[in-house]
Each structure stands twice: as structure tokens, then as C-alpha cells.
Amino acid sequence: MKANTWTKSRIPQPTLVRHHGTTKTRESGGNLKRGETPLTEISNEPTIEESKSDNALQCSTVRGWKTVKPNIALKASKDKEEPFRKVKERLETQESKIEQAEQTTKSYEEQQQQYQQQMDILLKDIKYLEEQETSTKESINSLEKELILAMRELETFEQNRKQKEEQLDELKVQISVIQGQIQVEETKTQSIQSRIEEQRAMLSSLYEEELSLQKQIQSERNRNQDELYKMEEMNTTETNLETEITKMKEQKEEHAKLVLEQENEREETIQQLERLKEDFYRTEIEIHQKEEEERAIEKEIADLDLQGEQYPQRKNELEQEIAHLKDNLNVVKVNIDQLKASISQRENEYKAQKNALEDLRQSSERALSTEKTNLASMQSQLEQLNEKNKQIQHAIKKKQDDAEYFNSALDQQRTLLVSLRNKMSALELRLDEERNIHLIEQQKLNALQERMQTQQSIIDELKEQRRNNGAIQEELQRKVYEMRPNMQVFCKLEPNDITDESTADSVQHLSLDMRNSELVARKMRGLEEVSSSIFPFDQIFDTDATHDEIFRHCTAFIDQIWKTRNVCIFSYAIDTHQRQLFFDANQGLVFLTLLHLLETLNVTSQCKPAFVVEFFRVWEDKMEDIFHSTWDDDIKDTVQENTRTDTTSNLTSIEISNAKQLQERLVTRMSSQHWKSQQGHFVFRINIKDEASPSFNMQSGITFIHLQAPDIQDKKTLQYQETEKNFVSLLHLLTQLANREKTGFSNSPYCILPNKLFECLSNNPKLLSILQLPKSTRNIQSTLLLLNLGQKLNCCEIVQRKAAFHR
User: Among 115, 137, 583, 691, whose Cα sits 20 to 30 Å from the Cα of 746?
Assistant: First the structure.
């Protein structure tokens, strides 16, 4: 209000001129005489006084006009006309100024109309572009679906093609294997045929040999008959030899028995010799032990000699033992000599017997060998003839078997060759069919690829068109935002807060209804309308509007943060449960804003920024850090400081760089706090911080401020003059925001919140206000106060380096 009166005092007020032509004639008044001119009444006081003095002068001079000379009268009339001339000139200048003011107002109205027409044209263009964009999106989606289907068909075709290629490869491998087998079998058949021919030649030669052999056999048979006679004679001689041989064998057996007996005796002597050797070894060991004992005794004797005559008895005993041992040793040596002599004697006897037997055996073996040689020579001749006959018959049979085997093998190879040729022809037919199918599939694939290329070119064109449309839309939105004010006001209707229906007819209540972008407030007494008023808003949301729907209308303001502009979103409400619009854990505007900013960062940003958030409450002259305090009823850790120290104090901040941190660090804290039922104004601030380069920290941010409007019917909220301290001061604060002034409240003891707001609104801010009002309420005064506040906010326009009011 102060700023309004100040601006009105600065505007130069034009002096409104009212002129009425009140000419008085002699017929009407009869007071004017000849030569007098009618006077004009002027609203300006100095001109009126001048006219009065002139009238008085005129009246004084008019009374005696007949006595005045004509030239004096003419001069007097000229003197009288000079002030009127001046007045007329002033009137003309005032009228020209009024006409200029009217022209300026007309030009301003024409400019406003042109701006409105441009706004309408731009909005139509935006709607057309949005429709075109939706159509392009739909066409892109349909093309993408077709492309996905084509890709799926192509994938299935590729899979089928790969399977068929694998089958073709397998068939080719099988064909190559079969061809190799055929070549091997052909080489085998050729080798078999060559071998058959060789065998045939061999058979012919064998047949000739067989004929010659038969002739030889006949001649040999004749010879054999002659030789049989000789054989009979030889048999008789053989029987005689056999008798002699049997005799010789008997003699040989007797000699063998003697040899066995001698060998047994020899073994016994050898065993005795071994025993004697063992005894000899034992005696040598005993002798060695005795010698060692003798040496030990000699050492002891030497020791005793050294010791003198201390142990004479021990020395005697040892000498006796040595003598006894020497006697035993002599006896053992004698026994060994006797055993050696007996062993040598027995060895000589054994050698004599062995020599006699050996001579006898050699003579008998010579006789037997001569007889055996004669018999063996005759038997060998006979066996040679029999074997030669058998070999010839066996060779003939073998050749016949080989011929049969080769014939059967040749038949098997021929049947196998025929089957392999049939299989190869079937595989070639199958290979031709697969090649035809492959050609058809390749043609389909080429057609699909051409279709995909055409669709891709269409998609690229649509994407390019979408980019161009996006650039045009951004340009149009920029122009719209340049033409629109930087402060907008939304209204959110809440459900009715009337609970007692019995007294609804007798008590007044306020009913709010939507009509396009206007809100009609009707003061009702029962069903009768007492009065009504209209409040225009930029956007009105009904009771069934969701938080997502409201957020979609707020994204244009939120995206201004990327243009290095501060964004401040206010909310005005009476009830504490209405804070859920901002601070609901998973659906509030704060949560949706952070999700939206994180999504835009993931899509567009190349750096790695993070969001730093702060949350505090202000009530009366106290400020409370919600992220730092416990908010228990027993421990109320509030910070009571004055404005200057409080604005410079650091708040507890939470850093968020992804959706997981948003859920873990922020949502859990906000849902676990018991701040929902607390009185006061709540401020939630979002700033940008770059993790990669600390030097890149944008000075812009988003501030959500939920202001609690006073409930005038509730006396608790009015204690300590709360209305004057917390709410009316905010009205002045918003007025100061329009004028970019900060001097009005900086020294006030209850302006913690305004000074905090000025920290958020330092760089070309965008302001959005959301009024939360019940659709029907008995709290008429508070609701009207909020509606009037919305109208005041809707008239403010904040422009960088310049501010002005528009009603």
C-alpha cells in the first residue's frame, strides 16, 4: 500500500478542465448591455478569481458607459479581452495535453490489444505445434512399433537363416564326407578290380601249375610205390634199431639212476660243505670277537700295567681267560683243517665218478645219434613229400576262397556305390531346395532392409522435424514467458470443511465455484446467495486434481533453474494437513521436483552435479532446522536468535545425486519426522552443486515456502499478535519483491522469514503462488483474505532491473 501511494504521488496528475458555455443574453438575464461578451466558467481557482475581478471591474465600468469616449471604450474593451485570451490559450494547451494523453492511452490500449493478439497467435501456434508434435510422436511410435516388429521378424529370419546355414553346412560336410567315402570306395574298387585281375592271372598260372603238379604227382606216386618197398625194408631195420634203442634206453636209465644217486650224494656233500662254511664263518666271527676281547683285555692289562699293582687279581683272571680263549681257538682251527681235508677228498671222489658217467653217456649218445640221423633223414623225405602235396592242395583251396571273397566284396562295393550315388543325388536335390529357400529369404531380407531404411529415413525426418518443432516451441515459449509476468497464481480447491450440517441453514458460509480461469466466491446463508465476487487466476484445480497434474503445470517454472533463475513457489493454507501438497514423502511437489531434476540431469547434463537441500520452520521469532532437530515434545531443540545472526547461520544440508539417495536420505527423514502437526511457515530449499568441478556451482535454486495463513476464528493463532507478525508482514514482503526493495523489514525483530526469502530471490526470480482453499467453508474472513492476497500477487510483475505495478 505504501508503494502504491508512492507511485501515485510520483505520477503527474493532469488538471481536469471543465468548461460550460453559460452565455447570458439580454432576453434571459437582461443584465448584459451592448458591447459585452459572454463569460466562460473555468474550474481552476485562479482563473475563476481573475474572472470575478474582471467582472467586478466590468460592472463598475459598465454603469456609466454612455459618458465614456469611443476610443477610451475601445481601449477598455481590448484591456478586458486580454485575460480571456490568456485563459483561452491555457485552455487550448490543456485540451492539447488531454488529447495527447488520450492518444497515448489509445496507443497503449492498441499495444495491449496487439500483445494480446500476439499472445493468442503464439498460443495457437503452440497448440498447433503440440498437436503436430503429438501426431509426430504417434507416427514415430507407430513406426517404432513397426520397426520393432520388423526387427523381430528380421531376428526370427536371421535365426532361421542361421539354422538353415548350419543345416547347409552340415549337409555340405556330409556331402564332402560322402564324396570322400565315394572316392575312397572308388579307389578301393579300382584296387579290388586290379587285384581281381591279378588274382585271375594268378589263378590261370596256378591252374597251369596244378596241371603240371598233377603230372608230377602221378610220377611221384610211381616213385612212391618203389620207395614203399624200400620203406618196408627200412621199417624192419627200424624195428631192429628200436629194439637196440630200447636197450640203450634201459642202459641209459640205469646210468641216469646212478647219476641221480651221485647227484644226491653231491647235494648232500654240498649241504655239508655249506654247513661247514657256516660253521667256519661262525668260528671266524667268534675268533674275531675273541680277538676283540683279547685286544680289550690287553688294553685293560695295559691300563692295569699303567696303574701299577693296584689290581693284580683282575690281571690274573684276564690272563687266564686269554689262555683259555687261545686254547679254544687252536681247537677250532684244527677242526677247520680236518673239515677242509674231508671236503677236498669228497670232491675228488665226486669228480672221478662224474668223469666215468660222462664217458658212458657220450658213447651211448653217439650211437643213438647215428641211428636217429638215419631215421630222421628217411622220415624227413617222406614228410617233405606229404607237405608238398598238402601245400599244393591248400594253395588251390586258398585261391578258390580268395576268388569267392573277391567276388562277394566286389558285389558289396557295387551295392554300396549305388546307395551312395542315390544318397548324393538326394542330398543335391535337398541342397537345391535349401538354396532356393535361401534365395527367397534373402529377397525377403533385402525387402525388409529396404523397408527399414525407408522407415529409418522417415524416423530421421520426423526426429529432425521434432527437433525443429521443439526449437520453434522453445522460441515461442520463450516469447510467451517474456510477454507473461514473472509471477503467477494458482488456486487449488480442497474438499468442504463444513461438518455440522444441522446448523448449515442458519450460519453463513462461503462457496467457491470454478468458471474457466475464474473463481466465483458466493457468500451463502443456507441456500440463499447473499453476495458474490469474481477472482481471476492463472490456473484453477478442482478437488479431484492430483499432485502430478499440479506438478505438470509447475514444470515450466521449475525448468527456469537451468536458465540461472531463482524459482520460488509459495503455498498459502490454513490447515496443517494441506502441507502434503508440498512435503508428502512420495507424492509431494518437492519429491516430484527432485525426481524431475534428476531425470533431466541424467538426460542432458555432461557433468556430475548434485542437489543440496535444506528444510526449516519459522514461527514467531524462532527458526528450527528440521534436518537437525529431533522434534520431540520433551526435547524442543529450537534456535532462538535475532534476524541478523539467524540469516548468516548455516543450516543442515543433505546432498542428493540419484534416486536411491533421494529415497534413503530424504524420504525416510521426512516421513519419520513429526512436523506435520506443528504450527508455522515451512521452507524447503534446493540448490545445485557440481561434484566434478567445485568452481561450477550455479547460483540459482528452487525454494518451496508453505505459509500458514491465520485462522481468524481460532484464538490460539492470534495470540502474541501473530497475524500482525507473520502474515501481514508477508503481504508487505511480496510488495517489496515487486519493487526489488529490502530496506523495509531487515531490522524488524520478527522478520526471520522475509530475510530468508530475500536470500532465495537474489537473481531474477520466477514466483508461483498456490492458494489452497476449501470449496465450502464458514471461515469466510480468512478465505477472503487469501483471495485478496492472490489478487494482489496476480497484479505484481517482477522484471529484471525493473519493477512496476499493473492493476
Answer: 583
Q: How many other C-beta atoms can be found within 10 angstroms of the C-beta atom of residue 86?
A: 12
Using an 8 Å Cβ cutoff, are 621 and 753 in contact? no
3-state helix, strand, coil in the chain (%, to 5): 70, 15, 20
Predicted confidence (pLDDT) per residue in 638-693, tens digit:
333 323 334 445 678 888 888 888 888 888 777 765 566 677 788 888 888 766 55
Helix 70-307 vs helix 312-483: crossing angle, to nearest 10: 170
Which phi and psi angles does 774 have, rounded to 5°? -70, 145
Strands 487-494 and 539-541: parallel
C-alpha cell, 635: 526435547
CB atoms within 10 A of CB 223: 12
550 or 607: whose pLDDT is higher? 550
Residues 6+ apart with CB under 8 A from 675: 617, 626, 631, 682
Report the residue count for the chain. Answer: 807
The rounded distance, in Å, linking the Cα atoms of 493 and 496 is 9
Distance between CA 159 and CA 364 in Å, rounded? 97
DSSP-derived secondary structure for 759-799: HH-SSS-EEEEEEEEESEES-HHHHHHHHHHHHHHHHEEEE
Cβ-in-10-Å burial (0-12, 13-18, 19+) of 566 comes to: buried
What span, in angstroms and rounded, lies between the C-alpha atoms of 470 and 132? 11
**What pLDDT shows up at residue 37?**
41
User: Could you tell me the three cell numbers for 498?
Assistant: 463444513
What is the mean predicted confidence (pLDDT) over 425-445?
Answer: 83
Bridge partners of 522, per DSSP, are 511, 532
Whole-angstrom CA distances from 308 to 300, 311, 461, 615 are: 12, 8, 134, 118
Burial class (CB in 10 A: 0-12, 13-18, 19+), 707: buried
Amino acid occupying residue 547: H
Q: SS3 for 646-686, per residue?
A: HHHCCCCCEEECCHHHHHHHHHHHHHHCCCCCCCCEEEEEE
Partners of residue 572 on adjacent β-strands: 707, 771
Residue that has been written with the C-alpha cell 640203450 in this structure: 248
How many Å apart are CA 189 and CA 195, to the nearest integer? 9
In the three-class reduction of DSSP (H, G, I as helix; E, B as strand; rest coil), residue 540 is classed as strand
Q: How many Cβ atoms are within 10 Å of 586's Cβ, its own excluded? A: 12
Q: 657 to each of 458, 584, 605, 606, 700, how far by Cα in Å?
A: 38, 20, 12, 14, 17
Q: Name, in order, each residue with C-beta under 8 angstroms of 252's C-beta and a sequence gap of 6 or more.
A: 361, 364
Cα angle value 410/412/417 (rounded, 5°): 95
Q: What is the CA radius of gyration of the chain?
A: 70
Which helix (DSSP H) or strand (DSSP E) does residue 687 occupy?
strand 681-690
What per-residue string of b and e applies to 681-690 under the rule 16 or more CB within 10 Å gives b? bbbbbbbbbe
Q: Buried b vs exposed e over 628-666: b needs ≥16 C-beta within 10 Å?
A: ebebeeeeeeebeeebeebbeeebebeebeeeebbeeeb
Read off the pLDDT of residues 321-335 as tens digits, 9 standing for 90 and up: 777 777 777 777 777
CA-nearest of 573, 545, 640, 492 to 779 is: 573
Closest CA to 248 of 354, 367, 356, 355: 367
User: Mind listing the domains of the chain with CATH numbers?
Assistant: 14-132 (no CATH), 485-805 (3.40.850.10)
What is the helix (H) or strand (E) element at residue 459, kind and residue range?
Answer: helix 312-483
Gap between the Cα atoms of 187 and 185, Å rounded: 5
Q: Give the distance from CA 22 to its chain's centroid.
A: 92
